[in-house]
């Protein structure tokens, strides 16, 4: 797997560049996934060096990693807003619209992103796409509504596949199912987001169309959203 190492290095450099934006006293949202893990490690080093910040996690896995890194954590249930959130993505298009959720944390990630003054997205080059839909769009579904929602998702034009690991459905941190929807190229992501949000039983979806403010790819700030 030697060919993967440049991308892993890009993740690390993107994460470190984003963590350099954190200022003393900030309340920081910590994303989930392999790229966010580099950010947690980098923030842990800054905290060990004396930086006073507090953070909230977008998943139980991130919470555990952040505590292990020595970062002071708050329960997001007690928090209305964070100063910034640093998180990865599965796909990002030129307008900084993204698909997230391959790690199953999309719902908490979207809530924390919505609460954030700024969202810093950290990726490697492999995540840049000309159009969203190269891979599946994760949808979080209430188990009670599994069959109903699966049929409605198919009617929207995708191939819905229940996420399974070792023969059992993968559950989100909330105990919900994850359905990965292959739409192919998504021509109208905002309309699709509205359709998904209107489906009872859909608890969240991985389209992040307006949350990202800054994109770090590798060690550089590559792009700031036009507002
Ligand atoms: O649910 C998972 C998240 O949306 C991740 O941020 C996303 O899948 C990117 O993860 P990674 O940095 O491991 O590619």
Automatic annotation (TrEMBL):
The active site is at 109 (proton acceptor). InterPro entries: NagB/RpiA_transferase-like, Ribose5P_isomerase_typA_subgr, Ribose5P_isomerase_type_A. Its EC number is 5.3.1.6. Substrate binds at residues 32-35, 87-90, 100-103, 127. Keywords: Isomerase. Gene3D superfamilies: 3.30.70.260, 3.40.50.1360. GO terms for molecular function: ribose-5-phosphate isomerase activity. Pathway: Carbohydrate degradation; pentose phosphate pathway; D-ribose 5-phosphate from D-ribulose 5-phosphate (non-oxidative stage): step 1/1. Catalyzes the reversible conversion of ribose-5-phosphate to ribulose 5-phosphate. Homodimer. Belongs to the ribose 5-phosphate isomerase family. This is Ribose-5-phosphate isomerase A. It comes from Sphingomonas morindae.
């Amino acid at each position: 797997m030697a060919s993967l190492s440049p991308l892993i290095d890009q993740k690390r450099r993107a994460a470190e560049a984003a963590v350099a934006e954190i200022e003393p006293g900030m309340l920081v949202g910590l994303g989930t996934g392999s790229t966010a893990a580099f950010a947690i490690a980098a923030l842990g080093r800054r905290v060990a060096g004396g930086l006073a910040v507090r953070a909230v996690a977008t998943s139980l896995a991130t919470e555990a990693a952040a505590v292990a890194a020595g970062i002071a954590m708050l329960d997001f249930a007690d928090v209305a807003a964070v100063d910034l959130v640093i998180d990865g993505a599965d796909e990002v298009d030129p307008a900084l619209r993204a698909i997230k959720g391959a790690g199953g944390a999309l719902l908490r990630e979207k809530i924390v992103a919505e609460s954030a003054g700024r969202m810093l997205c950290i990726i490697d080059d492999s995540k840049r796409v000309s159009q969203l839909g190269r891979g599946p769009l994760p949808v979080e579904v209430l188990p009670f509504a599994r069959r109903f929602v699966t049929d409605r998702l198919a009617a929207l034009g995708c191939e819905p596949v229940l996420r399974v690991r070792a023969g059992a459905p993968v559950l989100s941190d909330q105990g919900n199912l994850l359905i990965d929807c292959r739409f192919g190229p998504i021509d109208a992501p905002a309309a699709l987001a509205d359709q998904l949000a209107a489906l009872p039983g859909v608890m969240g979806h991985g389209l992040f169309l307006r949350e990202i403010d800054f994109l770090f790819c590798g060690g550089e700030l590559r792009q700031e959203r036009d507002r």
